[in-house]
Amino acid sequence: MLLIIGLVVTGLIWALIYFRARGYIWALSGVIPLVTWGFLDPTRIVAQAFAWFALVVLCTPFIYRPLRRKFVSEKVFSIFKNSLPKMSKSEKEALDAGTVWWDAELFGGRPNWNKLIEYSKPQLTEDEQKFIDGPVEELCSMLNDWAITRNNDLPEDVWQYIKEEGFFGMIIPKKYGGHGFSALAHSSVVMKIASRSVTAAVTIMVPNSLGPAELLLQYGTDEQQSHYLPLLASGKEIPCFALTGPEAGSDAMSIPDNGVICKAEYNGEKDVLGIRINWEKRYITLGPVATLLGLAFHLYDPDHLIGEVDDIGITLALIPTTIKGIEIGHRHFPLDIPFQNGPNRGKDVFIPMDMLIGGQDRVGEGWKMLMECLATGRSISLPALSTGAGKLVCRSTGAYARIRKQFNLPIGKFEGVEEALTQMAGMTYQMDAVRQVTAVAIDEGESPSVISAIAKYHLTEKMRKVINHAMDVQGGSSICMGPRNIIARIYQSIPISITVEGANILTRSMIIFGQGAMRCHPNILNIINSVQIDNPQKAIIEFDRLFFKQIRFAASNLARTLFTGLTNAKLVMTPIKSREKIYYQQLSRMSSAFALLSDVFITTLGAELKRKEKISGRLGDILSELYIASTVLKHYQNQGSHQQDYELVQWSCENSLYNIEHSIDDLLNNFPIKTIGWILKKIIFPYGKQYIKSSDRTGAVIANKLLEPCPTRFRLTQDIFIPHNTDDQLGRLESALTRVIAAEPIEKYINESIKKNIISKTPQSSLLERAVISRVITPEQADIVRAANTARRDVIMVDEFSQDFSEHFDPVTSPLNDDTVVSLNPTHNKLS
Ligand SMILES: Cc1cc2nc3c(=O)[nH]c(=O)nc-3n(C[C@H](O)[C@H](O)[C@H](O)COP(=O)(O)OP(=O)(O)OC[C@H]3O[C@@H](n4cnc5c(N)ncnc54)[C@H](O)[C@@H]3O)c2cc1C
After folding, report:
1. Given Cys at both, which of 21, 55, 269, 464 links 16, Cβ 3.0 to 4.6 Å?
2. Degrees to nearest 5, angle at CA 712 with 708 and 714
3. What phi and psi values does residue 483 have, to the nearest 5 degrees?
4. Taking the CB of residue 64, how many other CB atoms lie within 10 A of it?
5. Helix (H), strand (E), coil (C) string for 509-548
């Protein structure tokens, strides 16, 4: 009997911890079994009295709050208050910026998958789709990336077209003459253009990202909005935004550029209240051609012309570049990608107060404004560019690997190449999942700051890996540059994406977990805020409530982690019943382990964690992998759960789980107290290492899908620009792929005939004729093989130049004969 009671009580305690029960539920859960016991076995009075006593002792501190406040919370409160790091206003503003979304569920240790499933599917409006099929398609066909690089700029007609079609006004509402596009449409446009030319994509992406238009929309005065937004939408004004300078890169808050409030003559008027600014900026995209300069500077008011404060803080202005004292126009040369980028300087430039974004009311709010806008732009631009690049590379390198033969086999059939292709496809699938799911979150009103950092960091890193694989697979043909080489420019551009909008090392090691812990953790920020409440009594009451909530939260994560570890998460309930259910379950398990580890590290390291970037980086990696895998599951569902794509889901989730385990292992191997590290490992992985990388078989299935026109390949590379003619390398590859595949069975048949001595192997040059004469194949079949050989040869050739590169010769490859040139079916890239 005692054993049964013992087991029931243990199970009950476990369940109470697991479900984060409140104090009174604990007490009730103790009372009910004790009363039942009393009825069933009234003879054991001593044992029961002892149990009642234990229950009262255990529960009173949790239910009777004054007691627990006095003996527990007050003491913890003072320790906590003294150890709290001081946070500057700007740091606090950066932390407060944006919203939290699915990241908060993952941080909470018990993600509600129903929520994820119910988020909307990506859907463009009719107007948005028309724009992508019309002006975007047209722009892409105008872009010749090789010529752009040779000329160090976009051609004049392209600039004109971009302005006329409102590419700079995608985020500007229709009432101001812009397109008023959704985040999804904005992302789709950038992605498609990026699949054609990184230079053009960056040129278009910047004004639509963190820049004057976004800042005006969020903070501009009515006059500023109605004056500037139509000019920006029509391309009559070219904007740039200048924050970075020689002394302030990643640490942008420390800009030395300064403005002093004063009175001066302006436009013939005397004693105009304004600001005299001095600045030195560099790396500014569109800076050399900008007509409207968004400028961040530190504002001072030593003469107290607008208030009592001397040091007002970072402030933003919108300044016509024609104003006296501005030096603009020089260019940097960023890695051979000739989008307009350069320095600018201002010497004693006087601007009236109405040039401040948001007017005088917004002085000193610059950092907050920037941080809030950053979350949206960073979720869209570089994720879209990275995905576009990934899709192009998958499409072209997959085709190349089927067309290019070595050792008498398409190189894509060799396991080594297969491995690279698998990685490329898997990571591109992940990129598209993160891109689309995040864009939809923005369209639903979120401005997810932590997720934007995850998307920026991981998609640019994945793009780097994908392009590296592609370069390896395409060998010399990816190295020799020229119009035929459509992937080298992406390879060259990678460090730009890695560096801008928050350099990647910093983003991974400081921002993702650092900001996540503050914003997404259910209790941390509230606890910090409670300590800062002015009224000490109120502060303690609030602290006490949150502190015990946190204890319940941490205990539950511990119980959940151990329980899901012991049961291999088989009992975790998910709304999905199909085979991907296991991934939902394992992600729930790892979310709980992540919540547990976050608390362990936050508690043991406290403010030190800010400097422990290796720990913060690995915790950030776990959060990121949880997010990436969640978006993959959602993306699969959004696309209709096509079974042919299942291996991509499998590969992605298995790799994410593997990476999570790897990060946990690294974290705990480096835990300062070895025994605790060991115990935590046993709690999280009670049976030892759990996750393995995706199998070779899965990898082979994925890689093979890149080697032939099939629905998975089309879906994976959907919505990039596919040229419809064979003068273009991607068009050439697409056409050759179809031809090569058509010829393969015929070639196989010829080879079998050679083996059977029906025809001889040599001379190769007359093989087809002999095969026809011997009636091994028909003349029509010989033509198919000939066309495939011509197309294959055309694809594998690289460009040649004159000795001193002064003249560009046509490639010496034999182009396709006129009669074999086919225009690709425009519906080739569409899925029925
Ligand atoms: C092509 C290009 C276009 C750009 N466009 C614009 C623009 O339009 N407007 C604008 O204002 N700026 C722009 N920038 C500037 C860009 O935002 C900065 O380059 C970026 O912030 C990094 O600054 P930095 O290059 O000076 O590197 P640094 O700040 O010197 O950083 C160097 C390295 O140190 C790392 N690091 C720094 N601090 C930490 C830390 N605490 N923890 C871990 N690692 C750290 C960084 O991650 C990086 O890897 C552009 C830059 C480039 C190259």
Report:
1. 21
2. 75
3. -60, -25
4. 11
5. HHHHHHHHHHHCCCCHHHHHHHHCCCCHHHHHHHHHHHHH
For ligand 1, atom 52, the nearest C-alpha belongs to: 283
Q: Report the b/e string of 176-212 with b at 16+ CB within 10 A.
A: bbbbbbbbbbbbbbbbbbbbbbbbbbbbbbbbbbbbb
Distance of CA 535 to the CA centre of its chain: 42
pLDDT tens per residue, range 315-365: 999 999 999 999 999 999 999 999 999 999 999 999 999 999 999 999 999
Cα distance between residue 434 and residue 652, in whole Å:
12
Q: What is the pLDDT of residues 362-406, one digit of tens each?
A: 999 999 999 988 888 899 999 999 999 999 999 999 999 999 999
Ligand 1 pocket, residue 341 CB under 6 Å: yes
Q: What is the 3-state secondary structure (H, E, C) of 444-496?
A: CCCCEHHHHHHHHHHHHHHHHHHHHHHHHHHCHHHHCCCCCCCCHHHHHHHHH
Which protein residue's CA is at the shortest distance from atom 16 of ligand 1? 500
Decide: 435 and 442 in contact? Cβ < 8 Å. Answer: no
CA 285 to centroid of ligand 1, rounded, Å: 13
CB distance 244 to ligand 1 below 6 Å = yes
Which residue is closest in CA terms to ligand 1's atom 6? 284
Spatial distance between the Cα atoms of 236 and 222, rounded to a whole number of angstroms: 19
> Cα–Cα distance between 432 and 635 in angstroms, integer?
8
Cis check for the bond before 207: say yes or no (omega within 30 of 0). Answer: no
Report the atom number in ligand 1 closest to the C-alpha of 242.
11
Compute the distance from residue 500 Cα to the ligand 1 centre, in Å.
Answer: 6
For atom 48 of ligand 1, which residue has the closest CA? 503
| pLDDT at site 179 | 97
Measured between alpha carbons, how far is 203 from 154 in angstroms, rounded to an integer? 9
Q: Report the SS3 class of residue 345.
A: strand
CA distances from 552 to 9, 72, 80, 555, 619 (A): 18, 15, 18, 5, 22
Q: Ligand 1 centre from 494 Cα, in Å?
A: 14
- Whether the CB of 795 sits within 6 Å of ligand 1: no
Q: Annotated catalytic residue: which of 501, 580, 734, 747?
A: 501
Longest dimension (CA), the chain: 106
How big is the chain by its Cα radius of gyration, in Å? 32
Amino acid, res. 256: P
Index of the ligand 1 atom closest to the CA of residue 332: 1
Tell whether ligand 1 has an atom less than 6 A from the beta carbon of residue 616.
no
- Strands 409-410, 405-406: pairing is antiparallel
Is 501 a known active-site residue? Answer: yes
Q: Given ligand 1 and candidates 199, 316, 461, 506, which is best to mutate, with the most ligand atoms within 8 Å of its CB?
A: 506
Q: What is the pLDDT of residues 650-692, one digit of tens each?
A: 999 999 999 999 999 999 999 989 999 999 999 999 999 999 9
Cα angle for residues 630, 430, 700 (degrees, 5° grid):
115
Q: How far apart are CA 745 and CA 754, in angstroms?
A: 14
